[in-house]
Write a structure and sequence with these properties.
Blueprint: H1 2-13, H2 19-60, E1 64-68, E2 74-75, H3 80-85, E3 90-105, E4 108-117, H4 120-125, E5 131-134, E6 139-140, E7 143-149, H5 150-156, E8 167-172, E9 183-194, H6 200-203, E10 204-208, H7 209-216, E11 222-223, E12 225-230, H8 240-247, E13 251-255, H9 256-259, H10 261-299, H11 301-309, H12 314-350, H13 370-393, H14 399-406
Parallel strand pairs: 4-10, 7-9
Antiparallel strand pairs: 1-12, 1-13, 2-11, 3-4, 3-8, 3-12, 5-9, 6-7, 7-10, 8-9
């Protein structure tokens, strides 16, 4: 095997009698190099986007979220919260009330989502680190306050420096409709504005749990969901079996991935489709290997005859040219990986390409995964092996065929 490889390497780097062989080899290496570089750049870009999305959702989504399988709210008549807090590996437990409401500020109206929380929520998602104006507090003295997203604040033209203006909350009254007074209504002082790259920034209004229950007219111990954070070093998924024993079959328990399972599947599917498209282009590019091998068979016909006379079998002779095809692909793929890595590294450092037009736009994220380099290398080598093998299937190295070649 070592001898076959050495001969193939010598044929690759050795001097050729025809310049066309060098040209075809250069084209084969270049085409594989470009597609390999493109593949590693695209994969790194997808990794960056996926990581960015995960970080965004990690900033506002709990490690585990408990909701009803059917229905919007439930009453904690069985002291579920107390039972969950008694689990040793549970860190934070936050009951939550969520509902869409109509909000108004200085005459401007918008539909938003009120999210009633307790103070523990701030420790769970570090909301105070996302505040760009004001503070992350739910009360100022006895005054109820709201923390709203930057997008919603922009639409409503909120001015936190004006203490006389309030955020007005409207929600349709439950039960019998009162045509003269159909809405529950209250006002909130805006204590802070938060900013994250998430839909929350365009609609979310954080308030205290008590205010959300009041404006929605919900009974005591009624919640939309329960959000849980595991203790440090504990995997959230390890808590699921114990939680299921407490909750039964009425509830679903979702980790961060399961809370946005469709989105993550779409991202994985897009990444797979891109890999398949580039792999198809790579297959087309690898046909240049057939030309390289065919020309080398003509170039080295005397060497083939000599090796055959010395006792080298036909499969070993074919192995020389299959190895040469693999070597050509290996050179192209390694060069492509280096170029792709350097191009991605430059984007990561300097951020030449932006996610959107404008000077304040963030650069396109890049993240390297060593496994991607291995995958690209395996794909290229596999395609090169199959292409070279198929070409050598039609090559004949019996005595009669070799004799005819030398004539």
């Amino acid at each position: 095997m070592k001898m076959i490889f050495n001969i193939a390497l010598r044929y690759l780097v050795g001097k050729k009698s025809r310049n066309i062989i060098n040209l075809i080899t250069l084209i084969a290496v270049s085409s594989i190099m470009v597609t390999s570089a493109a593949l590693i750049i695209i994969l790194s870009a997808f990794n960056g986007l996926e990581s960015t999305v995960k970080n965004v959702y990690r900033s506002v989504d709990p490690e585990l979220k408990i909701t009803l399988k059917e229905g919007k709210t439930f009453t904690d008549s069985l002291n579920i919260l107390t039972q969950i807090r008694s689990i040793p590996d549970v860190g934070k437990v936050v009951p939550v009330i969520e509902e869409n409401v109509l909000v108004s500020y200085s005459g401007k109206q918008q539909v938003g989502m009120i999210k009633g929380i307790t103070e523990d929520y701030f420790d769970m998602v570090m909301l105070d680190t996302m505040i760009i104006t004001g503070k992350a507090i739910l009360h100022i003295g006895k005054q109820e306050t709201a923390i709203i997203g930057e997008g919603l604040a922009y639409v409503l033209e909120v001015n936190t420096d004006d203490p006389n203006k309030r955020l007005e909350i409207y929600f349709p009254k439950r039960g019998k409709i009162d045509i003269f007074n159909p809405f529950m209504y209250d006002q909130l002082l805006i204590s802070g504005i938060f900013k994250i790259d998430h839909d929350y920034t365009n609609s979310c209004i954080f308030t205290s749990l008590d205010f959300a229950r009041y404006i929605l007219k919900l009974p005591e111990q009624t919640y939309s969901s329960i959000e849980i954070q595991a203790k440090p070093g504990v995997s959230p998924n390890d808590l699921k079996p114990e939680l299921k024993k407490i909750l039964g079959d009425q509830f679903k328990i979702e980790n961060r991935f399961e809370q946005h399972v469709v989105m993550y599947r779409v991202m994985k599917g897009e990444k797979l489709v891109v890999i398949l498209i580039i792999a198809f282009i790579l297959i087309i590019a690898s046909f240049n290997l057939i030309g390289v091998i065919s020309l080398m068979l003509v170039e080295k016909r005397k060497d083939i005859m000599l090796l055959h006379s010395l006792g080298m079998t036909a499969p070993r002779l074919k192995g020389i040219f299959i190895s040469q095809g693999i070597l050509v692909a290996l050179v192209g793929s390694v060069l492509g990986l280096i170029i792709g890595f350097l191009a991605s590294l430059l984007q990561k450092i300097f951020g030449f390409i932006k996610l959107a037009p404008g000077p304040r736009s963030k650069p396109f994220p890049i993240e390297f995964n060593p496994m991607d380099f291995v995958v690209v290398l395996v794909i290229v080598i596999s395609i090169a092996f199959v292409t070279s093998f198929l070409r050598m299937l039609i090559a004949k190295f019996d005595q009669r065929s070799l004799s005819s070649v030398l004539k």
